[in-house]
Amino acid sequence: MYTYSVSKRAKTVAQPRGGFLPLSLFTRYSFEDGLALKEGENIPAGITGQAVDYMSRFVSGLVSPQESFNISLLGAIRAGKGQRGMELLGQIKGLDDSSLVSACKLASYDTFYRVPGSVFSSEPEPNSATLFNLRLMVTRMVSFLAEYGPITAEGFTMEGGYTDIVSSGDGDFLTENTLWDIKTSKKTPTSKDTLQLLMYYIMGKHSWNSDFNSIQNIGIMNPRLNSVWLLDANTISTSLIQQVSRDVIGY
């Protein structure tokens, strides 16, 4: 049987009209810092998202650069570029241009770990607009983590909660009572995003990860849109939890 990661399953499973968990159920909170992102980014959206995520963990002081970029480093090894990965890691010091360029290049190796069999092409070369936007999004993430934290877990996994259908997947952040997923899309969260978040919640509750014992809320943070969407998980119907548990995850 083919097995999925959490994100892959959320993207491919059929959902009812409006999605299993409509965004309209969430409360949106928007922030204002008087700054606007620039047009003209030139690197793939997936790499942008990973770079923002990993740099936010590092700059916030949660983990070291090596811990934050661990999956990227493992991907570089699988790509036969382990030494290059360590070279890029050594250039990541903060939010200066050189660090952000190296972060993007290192994050591009994620795919070799997450998608075995990937073929190396070339490292991305972020332009000035991309670097400006990365710096602003990471800065917004640091402010968000300071306000909504403290963070109790980052890059969390859900051992004991995986199934024959969904056998992998790692989430972004947990605070004392909230599970957070980070998105950097130009659009508001989709039904795929809310399903992914719900899957993390259900699988976390099934897992051996004790950090989930106190989780009561689920939320999405998008530093590009400078907004969060938050939902009290206790308001989600038991029938929906059971349906997603059975039909999507495979419990």
Q: How would you characterize this protein structure?
A:
This protein has 251 residues and is α/β, with parallel strands linked by helices. The chain folds into 2 domains: 1-35 and 139-251, no CATH class; 43-126, no CATH class. The protein contains 10 helices and 8 strands. The strands form 2 sheets. It has a 6-stranded mixed β-sheet with strand order 2-8-7-6-5-3, sandwiched between helices. Strands 1-4 form a two-stranded parallel sheet. α2 (45-59) packs across α6 (97-107) and α4 (70-78) runs antiparallel to α5 (82-89). The chain is globular.
Fold blueprint:
Blueprint lengths: L3 E2 H7 L14 E4 L14 H15 L5 H4 L1 H9 L3 H8 L7 H11 L2 H5 L13 H21 L2 E4 L11 E3 L4 E3 L2 E5 L8 H16 L10 E6 L4 E6 L5 H12 L2
Parallel strand pairs: 1-4, 6-7
Antiparallel strand pairs: 2-8, 3-5, 5-6, 7-8
Helix pairs in contact: 1-9, 2-6, 2-8, 4-5, 9-10
